[in-house]
Amino acid sequence: MAMAAPDGFRYLPDFIDRTGQQLLLEEIRSIVAAAPLFQPVMPRTGKPFSVRMSNCGPLGWVSDRDGYRYENCHPETGALWPGIPGTLLELWKKVAPGHPEPEACLINYYGPGSKMGLHQDRDEQTFGAPVVSVSLGDTALFRIGGTKRTDPTRSFRLASGDVVVLGGDSRLAYHGIDRLVAGTSTLLKNGGRINLTLRRVT
Ligand code: MD6
Ligand code: FE
Fold first, then answer.
1. Domain-located, residue 3
2. Across-strand partners of 70?
3. 175 CB within 6 A, ligand 1
4. Cβ atoms of 191 and 182 closer than 8 Å
5. Which of the listed residues 153, 172, 175, 198 should we mutate to test ligand 1's pocket, taking the one with most ligand atoms within 8 A of CB?
């Protein structure tokens, strides 16, 4: 029998239509032109992530040998992160009503072989607000469990335009991306996937 999803977990398939996805993609392209994708490395070991990252918003999530943290500047250019597009602030208002607006939007780019190990989003100073995620491009196999790494998990296919909300009891649930399913979207000309996660940090 499938496990119950933790309370506060919401999977909203097809939440953003194709036109909305194309608009968002244009906005992400201009953000990444100002704040180029960089390759983060794991704390201590320096092992590179298989995804490349950038951010928009007053704070951006970074990882290097010194650890995971939020910074107000890009690690390579030293510039402040670009602002969060209005379309994403509107999305946040729809799916996280009543919560103060997000301060960070992490942009993850997945190439064909990229994945993301099981992790919790817990580098924020507060867990009262949900984390809201938007998927663009190729479908990804997303796995989510409970608040213990060894809790049973269930999997979802996150397609382009899907939105996931981790709030309430699911805010600190372990989750990750097992792999992409190549050739499932025409949104990105060269394939791959972009995932955006909006967070309240302070
Ligand atoms: C991804 N998502 O979809 C990875 N985190 O590429 C996440 O790590 C994530 O989907 C927090 C909340 C929702 C998420
Ligand atoms: Fe996450």
1. no
2. 61
3. yes
4. yes
5. 175
Is 1 within a domain?
no
Residues 6 or more apart whose Cβ sits within 8 Å of residue 181: 138, 139, 140, 141, 157
Question: Quick one: tokens of 171?
Answer: 């805010």
Q: Mind listing the pLDDT tens digit for each residue in 96-136?
A: 999 999 999 999 999 999 999 999 999 999 999 999 999 99
Q: Supply the residue whose CA is at minimum distance from atom 11 of ligand 1.
A: 131
- For atom 3 of ligand 1, the residue with the nearest CA is 195
What's the predicted TM-score (pTM) here? Answer: 0.96
Q: What is the CATH number of the domain that holds 72?
A: 2.60.120.590
- Residue 7 is predicted with a pLDDT of 81
Q: 39: domain range? A: 9-199
Element of type H or E holding 32 = helix 18-34
